[in-house]
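Quick entry between incubations.
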Amino acid sequence: MIYFEKITKIYEDNSMALDDVTFTVSGGEFVSIVGHSGAGKTTLLKMLMAEERPTSGNVFFESIDVDSLKNSELTKFRRRLGAIFQDFKLLPNKTAYENVAFAMEASGKADDEVRADVPHALELVDLGSKMHNFPHQLSGGERQRVAIARAIINQPDVIIADEPTGNLDPINTYEIIQILKKINDMGTTIILTTHNKGVIDSLGKRVITMEKGKVTRDDQKGKYAL
Amino acid sequence: MIWTDLKRIIRAGILNFSRVSVVSLSSVFIFTITLFVIGSLILLNALLNYSLEQIKSKVDVNVYFTVSAPEETVLAIEGALEKLPEVAKVDYTSREVALENFKERHSADYLIIQSLDELGDNPLGATLNIRAKDPTQYESIVNFLEGGSEIVKSNSSYIDKINYHQNKAVIDRLNKIIAGTKKVGFAVTLALVIISILITFNTIRLAIYISREEIGIMRLVGAGNHYIRGPFLIEGVLYGIISAVVTMIIFWPITVWLGRTTTMFFGGINLFNYYLSYFFEIFGVLLISGVFLGAVSSFLAVRKYLK
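Done. Structure below.
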C-alpha cells in the first residue's frame, strides 16, 4: 500500500535527515516507528503527506508517486490520509464539532452528511457532551480525541499519528492508543511514531526502529529496542 | 455544490470575524483611519474646488463703450460674445444704469453729484461685463474684441477701453495659483491614499500572519485553496463594510461642527450640507474603497501561505 523507496533527505544546511530508507506498509497494518529525537521519524511522515519532498528516492501510495503530485492534486490526496499530531493542530477558533466538520466540508461532503457523521465521530471518541467546546476549553487528552475524530471522519485509508501521546499523561495515552487500535481493527492502516516504550510494548505490532536517518530494525510484533 | 461552498465560506468568514474579536477590532480601526483619510480628502477637495470656483468667479473683463456708441451696436456685440464657446456670461449695463449706479455709489459725495448736475449730460458709456468659463480663456475673448470678428471691426471706434490688459498680470498669476493648487492637492491626495493603502495592506498581512498556522492545518486536512482563502476574503470585505459605516458615522458630528466654520471661512459652502447632499456618493466611494482594499489585501496576503 505504501512504499518508501530509497528515500534520502538532505536539508539546505547539509544535514541528512533520512539516509536511503526503504520499507513497505501493507493495507490494514499498524506500524510503529521509534527512534530518538532527530532520527528522522517525523521527516518520513512529512514525505508521505508531501509536506516535504525527498532529495532522492520515491514515496508511493498505492500506485501514486507522492512526489510527482501537483499542488492541486495534493489537496485530494491528503483527504485519503488522516493526520494526528503531538500538538493536536486544531483550529483554535472553531469548536470541536466545527473542527471535525471542517475536514468533511473541505472534502465537499453535503450538509446532511456532516450533521449526521460529526456527532457520531465525536461520540466514538467519547466527546459527545463537549462537541461545542473550543479547543482551549478542553484538556490535552480531549483535544487529541477531537484530532482523532477529525482524522477518521472522511474514512481515510491511512492514519498518520506523529507522537500523538507526547503531550499526554499515562491515562490519556492509554485511552488514545486504545482508540487507535480500535480504528485499526476496523481496517484502517495506522503509522505511529512514538518515544513511549510502554505504548510499543503493549501494542505487540510491527516496530521499525530508526537511528540517524536510517532504518536499523524492522520487527513484526517487535518491542521497543533502543 | 458551488452554492454550498459559498455558504460555508461566508459563514466561516463571519464566524472568524466575530470570534477573533481583537484582531477584527484592530483591523476595523486601521481600515476606519484609512477610509477617514479618503473621506477627508473628498471633503477637502470639495472645499478646495469651491474656493477656486469662488476666486475664478471674481475674475472678469469689462468692455467700456464711448458715449456715442448706439445701444443696438453694444447689444449686437453682446450677442456675438454670447455665442463664443469660451464665454460663460455677458452682462450689459446701459448708459442710464451706469449713471444711476455711479450716483448711488457716490451719493454721499456732494461735490461729484453737483458736478454731474452742472454737466447736464450723461458722461458715462455703456459697459459689457464678461465672465469666461475658465480664466485662461480671457485672452482669446479679448482677441475677438480687438478685431477678431466683422462686427467688432466695423464698430471698433465705439470701444473705448477693455480692462483686460491692466488685469492681465493678476489673471495670469491667479491661473498659475489655481493650477499649482490643483497639482499640489492631487499630489497630497495621492500620497495620503498610497500611505493609507500600504498601512491597511500591512494590517491585513499581520492579521493573516497570525493565522498562518491555521492555514497550514487547513491544508493538511485537505482543504482546497479557495476554501482556505474564501473566509479571509469575507473577513476583509467585512472590515471594509463596517469601516465605511463607522467612518460615515464619525463624519456626521465632525461636519456638523465644521459646517459653520466653513460657511464663514469659505463664504458659502457648509461642509455638513455638502456631506448630506452627497451622503450616498461619499458612502459609495468609501464602501467600494473599503471592500476593494479588504478583498485585495486578504487575497494577496493569503496567497503567500498557499504556495
